[in-house]
Amino acid sequence: MGFFRQQPDINQGVQAYGAAPGAVLLDVRTPQEYRQGHIPGSENIPLQALEEAGRYPKDTPIFVYCHSGSRSRQAAAMLGAMGYTQVKNIGGIAAYVGKVVR
What pLDDT score does 1 carry? Predict the structure, then answer.
């Protein structure tokens, strides 16, 4: 067992999001970061305003990302504590190789 956690693969995560009916792709960065470039189809709810995620049914598949994976890891834990049952931290957009909307 090592000291380092294996980082989620955001590219695989985006593929899984695309294959999950009714899923939400959630960007938890700041609105300014979101405007600078985000994954197509994503919704922006900053980590500090995550209680707004309460608008989704609790069984909604939610795929969470941020810049590097730190805030998305926090958000995934928070969403789980809020009762969401299908939350996946897919990591950081910094490692994303697909199309970005600016």
Answer: 45
What is d(CA 56, CA 61) in angstroms, rounded to the nearest whole number? Answer: 9
Question: Which residues on neighbouring strands pair with residue 24, listed in sequence order?
Answer: 62
Token pair, residue 72, equals 């998305």
Residue 60 CA from chain centroid, whole number: 13
* pLDDT confidence tier of residue 54, bands split at 50, 70 and 90: confident
Residue 18, burial from CB neighbour count under 10 angstroms (0-12, 13-18, 19+): exposed
Would you please indicate which residues are annotated as catalytic (active-site) residues? 66
CA distance 3 to 19: 32
Does residue 25 contact residue 63 with C-beta atoms inside 8 Å? yes
Q: Report d(CA 85, CA 51) in Å as an integer.
A: 16
Structure-token pair, residue 81: 């504590």
